[in-house]
UniProtKB/TrEMBL annotation:
Gene this protein is translated from: ATP6
Subunit and interaction comment: Component of the ATP synthase complex composed at least of ATP5F1A/subunit alpha, ATP5F1B/subunit beta, ATP5MC1/subunit c (homooctomer), MT-ATP6/subunit a, MT-ATP8/subunit 8, ATP5ME/subunit e, ATP5MF/subunit f, ATP5MG/subunit g, ATP5MK/subunit k, ATP5MJ/subunit j, ATP5F1C/subunit gamma, ATP5F1D/subunit delta, ATP5F1E/subunit epsilon, ATP5PF/subunit F6, ATP5PB/subunit b, ATP5PD/subunit d, ATP5PO/subunit OSCP.
Family designation: Belongs to the ATPase A chain family.
Catalysed reaction equations from the record: H(+)(in) = H(+)(out)
Name of the protein this chain belongs to: ATP synthase subunit a
Any one Gene Ontology molecular-function term assigned to this protein's record: proton-transporting ATP synthase activity, rotational mechanism
Membrane-crossing residue ranges in chain numbering: 12-31, 69-89, 101-118, 138-159, 171-199, 205-223
């Protein structure tokens, strides 16, 4: 039984070919494309308003040098939200429950922020490894600690997204299994459990959006330190 709970996190295959590439491509197909008309429909208007508001909030603490990342961060935000929400549908696969995929997003982008800091302002970037006013005997220890915390950042980004989505999917499957088991035995308890399942599903929708936002927000904060 325990193995069947984790089967949903296995990458789907067809004739020995992994379908994760198809799962990564599908979200981009679902987005409505802008038209050349003077007036857009409500979906396009809502999409444009959401992208503008998110971009403004994301770039608010950044200087002009960080605004070059606006398209990349906004696209990543929409991509993660789409994959997280599509993964909540029945009989679907969520690519963002794979740690390898999340690390593939986190490590290159984090490394890019570090390289930009080292290239543009190496003194300031290295100064983050040693807080101001540190006692002399603690300098070697703090440098080691800050260096470790710097390299843990991409791991924390990937593990946070993977763990939150995996835990939510497991909870939904466990409670749904309990509903089906309790329905013929104790219908009243099964109805109460189904209510909890519905509320948990709403919570997971919020978590799917919040985790995508937190992922991109932390990347923007790392970028802010280095531009």
């Amino acid at each position: 039984m325990m193995l069947s709970f984790f089967d949903q996190f296995m990458s789907p295959t067809l004739m020995g070919i992994s379908l994760i590439a198809l799962a990564l491509t599908l979200p981009w197909i679902l987005f409505p494309t802008p038209t050349s008309r003077w007036l857009n429909n409500r979906i396009l208007t809502l999409q444009g308003w959401f992208i503008n508001r998110f971009t403004q909030q994301l770039l608010l603490p950044l200087n002009l040098g960080g605004h070059k990342w606006a398209i990349m961060l906004t696209s990543l935000m929409l991509f993660l939200i789409s994959m997280n929400l599509l993964g909540l549908l029945p009989y679907t696969f969520t690519p963002t429950t794979q740690l390898s995929l999340n690390m593939g997003f986190a490590v290159p982008l984090w490394l890019a922020t570090v390289i930009i800091g080292m290239r543009n302002q190496p003194t300031v970037a290295l100064g983050h490894l040693l807080p101001e006013g540190t006692p002399v005997p603690l300098i070697p220890v703090l440098i080691i600690i800050e260096t470790i915390s710097l390299f843990i950042r991409p791991l924390a980004l990937g593990v946070r997204l993977t763990a939150n989505l995996t835990a939510g999917h497991l909870l939904i499957q466990l409670i749904a299994t309990a509903v089906f088991v309790l329905l013929p035995i104790m219908p009243t308890v099964a109805i109460l459990t189904a209510t909890v399942l519905f509320l948990l599903t709403l919570l997971e929708v919020a978590v799917a959006m919040i985790q995508a936002y937190v992922f991109v927000l932390l990347l923007s904060l790392y970028l802010q330190e280095n531009v």
